[in-house]
Specification:
Length: 353
């Protein structure tokens, strides 16, 4: 009988701490975004003095550090002060007014009756909490373009007329989102805007170096490899660059090497299907999404439904596969409106011409 686990190499020869190379990892130190971090912090600071903050809308392409920077500052804020309640909401996962209110209540740790409450009843409880504890809320709306009911933003903005209740940070890949909001909302919230530019090769190299130093064995990589990875990322996405470092490390380990070679990177960038280099060893789930889209574009609900017939995955997991395909420039999406309040995404294959 073949002993598949008998090679004695159950440990890792290259990767010391894999979580540092994974998408959801929040580093202890952020580099190459000092200006952006300081600007965001300056917008938030008035809340610490119980004054009105500067609401902020952050936009930029995927992998430019928008969410990471905001989450980093939220963590720092929570460690330094208890006078503000930071609430992070991914609006793709929580697109409705009720879902967003429930996320706020979760952070407040407020018990709700089992019978359930209407959205306006929950909001009244949120406002009562703010009044009783004199604790304003810093509400971060990531993927803000996925919010289905803009009225939520109007209700929140009007709440500040009675007392200091909310500061808002919106995050989106869609830079034109604000211009599409109702004029009442734009006037009430008065967002300042900040764009996150794509990283340069030099910036990507330094980000990769920091991650590699903390995640990999010291002699398992060199500067030539890191620069090669940085140069392979056409859109300046740190997320894609880190993913390529991780996959190259896994490729080298699989071959029982003690160092990641340029060939390991080239292996994962090789053209293994009809798609080009961006494919990067697609998972079965990613490949299935591409198969679904070959017959034409699909709305988010339809895509989820078809996907769920084959794979039992949460919406968060499905979103991860979709994000991965978008970062590899294999699919693209657009936000569309259906009626006056409902928004959805339409997905389609990228034009490979």
């Amino acid at each position: 009988m073949v002993g598949y686990f008998d090679d004695g190499n159950s440990g890792s020869s290259i990767i010391r701490d894999e979580k540092i190379l994974l998408p959801d990892y929040l580093p202890d130190e952020l580099i190459q975004r000092d200006h952006e971090l300081q600007y965001i912090a300056d917008c938030i600071k008035p809340l610490l003095g119980k004054r009105m903050p500067q609401n902020l809308f952050i936009h930029g392409s995927s992998g430019t550090g928008k969410t990471t920077c905001v989450r980093y500052l939220i963590r720092q804020l929570s460690e330094q002060s208890s006078s503000i309640l930071p609430v992070y909401v991914n609006c793709w996962e929580n697109p409705t007014q009720l879902a967003i209110y429930n996320k706020i209540v979760e952070e407040m740790r407020l018990p709700l009756p089992r019978r359930g409450l209407a959205a306006d009843e929950i909001f009244d409880k949120i406002m009562q909490f703010v009044k009783n504890y004199k604790k304003p809320i810093l509400l971060v709306l990531d993927e803000m373009d996925a919010i289905r009911h803009e009225e939520l933003l109007y209700v929140i903005s009007r709440s500040n007329e009675k007392m200091l209740a909310f500061g808002i940070i919106g995050i989106s890949n869609n830079k034109s989102l604000l211009s599409k909001l109702d004029q009442r909302i734009r006037s009430s919230l008065r967002f300042s805007e900040m764009e996150f530019q794509a990283y340069s090769e030099e910036q990507l190299s330094s980000i990769l170096r920091l991650r590699a130093e903390r995640a990999l064995e010291p002699a398992s990589f060199d500067e030539k490899l890191l620069l090669k990875i940085a140069r392979s990322v056409e859109d300046g996405s740190a997320r894609v660059a880190i993913e390529r470092l991780w996959k190259a490390a896994k490729n080298a380990e699989h071959a029982s090497k003690s160092k990641i070679m340029i060939q390991d990177l080239e292996d994962i960038l090789s053209d293994t299907s009809a798609f080009k280099k961006q494919e990067l060893n697609l998972s079965p789930e990613e490949s299935f999404i591409l198969e679904l889209l070959k017959s034409g574009e699909l709305g988010s609900t339809e895509l989820y439904t078809l996907f769920s017939k084959k794979y039992d995955k949460s919406k968060r997991q499905i979103r991860y596969y979709i994000d991965s395909l978008e970062q590899k420039k294999l699919i693209e999406s657009n936000v569309v409106e259906s009626g006056s309040t409902f928004k959805s995404r339409i997905f389609k294959l990228m034009d490979r011409k």
